[in-house]
Specification:
147 residues; mainly alpha; 2 domains; 59% helix
Amino acid sequence: MAANANEALVLALISGADEKIDHRTLPRPGKSNRVGRPVYSESTWGKMMNRDIERLRDPSSDEAIIFRRRFRISFGLFEHILGWVRSWVAETRKLEKDICGRDAVPLHLLLLGVLRMLGRGTCTDGITELSDISETKMNAFFKDFCA
């Protein structure tokens, strides 16, 4: 049995294992992001956006009322602003993939973070807790959005 995850990865590559290796669980060198990239769809906000999307579109639903209270705008307005942000991002830079070719942080989660910061004064630590977006990434997007 391999002593650590790096040895397990090497053994899997050498043996030609057809299984997909979950790189998120492998330790990384250095001090940051030792557990790998987060799965944004499993964050609190990611689950909300995946699970409740139809109820969020109904302005009279409990989920839509909670959304308005948390983010200070209706979900319909959020979708309209998201369309504008997508076109703005497409003109300025590509966010579908990062420099390593991995999926980038979902734009709708970044926008939710900005709205939460503007509407309720939430700090980036609170955004990280709810969306798994790093504080550095959230700060950079917030500054770009507000510029």
